[in-house]
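Run log, item B.
One chain of 116 residues. Sequence copied directly from the ordering sheet:
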Amino acid sequence: MEREDRDKIYSKRVRAGKRTYFFDVRSTRSNDYYLTITESRRFQKDGGFVFEKSKMFVYKEDFNKFLEALQETIGHIKTELMPDFDFDQYKNEQVSVSNEETDDYASGGGSDLKWE
């Protein structure tokens, strides 16, 4: 069994148009847990599709600070910058939860990470 498959404990996929976000809980050798957030973007290049990925890691000691900052930042956008925008119009977008990913992310599509 490949290390990546063994270390993945939980996965949530959020599809958003040409982007897909993956929230993966992974384990270390010492049974500690951390979160990886991956944005996979699909675009056309040379007559085919290419996937570009960006990934970040959030460790357990940062969970509360990260969540608080994320909620505060999104709240600021919703209440201060865009108070009249209907964010609920996007509620019906597909969100899936699985122990295994089933799209191009899992099959290695665009496995070369490009950091910007």
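Observations after the first pass:
- Residues 99-116 have pLDDT under 50 and may be disordered.
- The first helix runs from residue 3 to 7.
Flagged for discussion on Thursday.
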